[in-house]
Specification:
mainly beta; 5-stranded mixed β-sheet; 1 helix
């Protein structure tokens, strides 16, 4: 699940997909969210990533990485809830928020040239 948590009531454009599934482009008002269902791969390589756009430019992050998110202690398992903020994405966990800064190393080189 991806939720718009931008300040000032900004609308956000979101495009989420995996190698096999395209969730499509969505325009989220403040606090609106999108979610989808899928089955993780038997091989452990399921990956969903999203592009976010508001104001100038765009940001990108992996919203579900099976190897990372199925970890018994640190993962969000089958329900990953992300808050998208100006400073970076925040993953809601049982013990609070894990927030990250938008950085260039969050960009996957294979998708840098892709546009929303």
């Amino acid at each position: 699940m991806v939720q718009n948590d931008l300040q000032g009531g900004q609308e956000m454009k979101v495009h989420c997909k995996s190698k096999d599934d395209d969730i499509g482009v969505h325009f989220l008002k403040h606090h609106e969210r999108i979610s989808w269902k899928f089955r993780p791969s038997f091989w452990g390589n399921t990956l969903f990533f999203c592009y976010f756009n508001w104001g100038q430019g765009f940001k990108h992050t992996d919203v579900y990485h099976q190897y990372r998110d199925e970890d018994a202690f640190t993962g969000c398992h089958h329900f990953c809830h992300w808050l998208v903020r100006e400073t970076g994405p925040c993953l809601i966990m049982k013990n609070g928020l894990n927030c990250y800064r938008w950085t260039e190393d969050m960009l996957s080189p294979a998708f840098v040239g892709e546009r929303l």
